[in-house]
Amino acid sequence: MSQTENVIHVLEAIVIVIGLSRLVGYGFERIKQPLVIGEIVAGIMLGPSLLGWLLPAGQAALFPAEIMPSLNVMSQIGLIFFMFLIGLELNPKYLKGNIDIAILISHVSILVPFSMGSVLALLLYPRLSNGEVSFTAFALFLGAAMAITAFPVLARIITENNLQKSRLGTLALTCAAVDDVTAWCLLALAIAVTRTNSILGAVPTIIWSLVYIVLMVTLMQRFLKKLAKYYERTGKLSQLLVAGIYIVVVISALMTEIIGIHFIFGAFLFGAVMPKNVGLTRELAEKTEDFVLVFLLPVFFAYSGLKTQVGLLNSPGKWLLCLAVIGVAILGKYVGTYVAARVSGIEHRESSALGWLMNTRGLTELIVLNIGLELKVITPLLFTMLVIMALVTTFMTSPLLERIYPKRLMRLDVVDTEPSDDASAAVMPYRVLVPVVNPKSQKGLLKLALEIAGERPLAGVNLLNLVEMQENYAFSTTPTEIDRLIEKRRDSLQQLIDSEVSPGNSRAIVPMVRVANDVARETSEIAQVERTNLLLMGWHRPVFDQNRLGGRVGQILSSAPTDVAVFVDRNLSNLDQVLVPYVASLHNDLALELALRLVLNSPTRHLKVLRLVPDSQSDCEFSREFSALMAQMLPSVKARIDTPIQVTHDPIAAVVEASRSVDLTIAGASREWGLERQTLGRYADALATQCYSSLLITRKYSQVTSPHVASVLTAPVPLP
Amino acid sequence: MCSFMNHFSKKSLIFYACAIGSVLVLFSGVSRYGRANLSAPSLIDGAYVLDIDANQECPNPEPLLLKVQQSGIYVNAALVSVKNAERSDFVAPLTLDGQWQAPELKLAGKAAPGLEVCGQVVGRVAIATQYQSETFTGELTFPELRDPLVFRSTQEQIGE
């Protein structure tokens, strides 16, 4: 194969690797699993376990032996810079939550699986190792592999569940950070022993490693502090500076390799001693991470997947050994963590959740295993068993956490609860949830929400802003960065509230900022947890869809377990005249209910219910429920409600014309108004585009509940 | 929360000393026992050229290549022709499976697709062999051939 052919093959392989890794990664995200698990699985799929099994010739054509050295170099470079990023993310801030308890738990959570792993070596060594590897090195490595906790994956799971400020979250992050450092030290020891095949032989390597760590922590850190000052002064990270930092990353990696541990430690150490100046770290991480995470890391997964041969597990005996490996890993980590947490006085549920969180091994384990295979301390069959163990332990974390710590309990555990959030739950019988994307442009939405809620002591508006976590392992998704972002968003929500509500106003507006992986799903879940009566959203045009009720709004419309209204704002200032075009339907009933609520909330507001019929003989009666509600209205309210009937064959045109003289038109998401969300194409949003007034599109969730007017009729009389 | 967990208190230092000490004692005990009483199978991982003895049915046999991947006592292998093994686009799935109980290695499974032995395309193969002085000697049994083929691997071992 010529050099050019080699490059072409490498590029072809990379296209497939990146494409498949993203595809499977997103697939796993859909089932509430970390994206990285999907990427690892994609790598395994490209190897002998699936592609090589189904299409051996195809796999050989895609990954010919000649390109393996190139892929190996790329995956190693990816690993070096990934470890640098991990070190960069290691912030002493994580060591703030119950540090004493965290150190105790993390050490016990390492010692127990390590001990159990080394005992398991007694069973595995005569069966799965070979005479070239000493028992001590094998046991040490197996123990280290069992003791791993994946800090990045754990941090991601914690932020996704909005736990980073909870007692459980801070404790788990601190434990995992301590675990990370301890486990890397343990692995460095295991590598040193493996390379020299004895503990005594590893002593010089250990001494040199300690000397190098001391140098990095003292001299290098002092130099880097000056660099941080330089950054603060100039305010930018020039390419020259980035080049200098990358050179030091590589030199540091080389140094630890020469010392006799491994490339990755030097890169990790340099990242760890980098000053945690927010701006410098963030900019450096952002410049580095995209290429490393999107391009190089999937190559590492693929390279690793090519060495994973699930087909080797072809007998019950081997599967039993695999189960033993998985069992010891789970038991060691869970029991170690759980017992230590209980001894430290943490209650059962939290201890259990902490145990499952610490059991997450993910990508960190994969890094360790590849080193083990490269050093031949573990054999291909044991490598495959340990990869399966890493996948199983990571895969089980989210569902188990959800089971042990359901979202409603997680909320109770949040230390920094939104002001009056829980207090409001007890007293508010009517709640409007308003997801806000950009607080600056959604004043109209808040205004309408406040009008619907009304100045009633028992009604309130929850203003929700979701911080979307899109990127895998991105620096912006680390807990400290997420905290910073949440504070920023909360400030801007507060500004929005201050601009609409005068100080001292008793209306309950609760700003909520949460982290979400899937915005639509999270919004629906919050609506359910908060017992929301109405989910009021702003309209936005989907990028890839002509339907105004498509895109994310459409997803929420389909999944929200409550009544939903979508607001198309045409500079809503006054809200005196409201129009409801009516044809009997479930969604139009909701439109009527909201309109009635608005009328009840203001003594000067008028409502026109325009009943549209195709001919004068047609019937257009209100629903029985609505008629019953109307019967309860005071005459002074009834006097402000007009219900004309109009004969027309073009209901949309009639509504558009009627909207000229009103401030707000409320229409159910019905076929008559071209608003049925299943309808696609240019007619779908005719009313939304042509309506002269602001428009509120309503979609009723349940025929049974109807709280919008009932809560006003049963609530105390509006305050003067 | 329990108050005894002051990181540098006497109580917690004693706890750490006991915990780490007991793990070190356990590990050194396990390690000593493992080194004294356990032995892992010797390393046979690699690729071996099998020189086949001629017989009546097969007067001019071509040498074959046995690629061995070892995971302790569990062995997977591929039997391919030497000519094919030199081709860069050739893949040899590890379709033979067996166990290594020194000095005996027994393997069974499918030969590489399209493998020709003594002018016959063969499917399944069983290998019974002994390993001594870095050399395999033994028999290859193919259902397509009347008699087993006797072989001896040459000293040259192609590293994986």
Annotation keywords:
heterodimer; A: alpha/beta; B: 160 residues; eight-stranded antiparallel barrel; two-stranded antiparallel sheet; 10 strands; 41% strand; elongated; disordered N terminus
Structural write-up:
- The complex is a heterodimer of chains A (720) and B (160).
- Chain A is an alpha/beta fold and 720 residues long.
- Chain A is built from 29 helices and eleven strands.
- Chain A has helices at 3-30, 35-46, 51-54, 56-62, 68-89, 99-128, 135-147, 151-160, 167-196, 203-234, 239-259, 263-273, 278-307, 316-343, 348-358, 362-374, 380-404, 407-413, 421-427, 443-453, 479-500, 519-529, 551-559, 586-601, 624-631, 635-638, 651-658, 686-690, 707-714; strands spanning 430-435, 459-468, 508-516, 534-538, 563-568, 577-582, 606-613, 641-642, 645-647, 664-668, 694-699.
- In chain A, strands 1, 2, 3, 4, 5, 6, 7, 8, 9, 10 and 11 form an eleven-stranded mixed β-sheet that branches.
- Chain A is elongated, with a radius of gyration of 31 Å.
- Chain B is of the alpha+beta class.
- Chain B is 20% helix and 41% strand.
- In chain B, strands 1-2-3-4-5-8-9-10 form an eight-stranded antiparallel β-barrel.
- In chain B, strand 2 and strand 3 (74-81) form a beta hairpin.
- In chain B, 32% of the residues are buried.
- At the A-B interface, helix 4, helix 6, helix 7 and helix 17 of A face helix 1 and strand 2 of B.
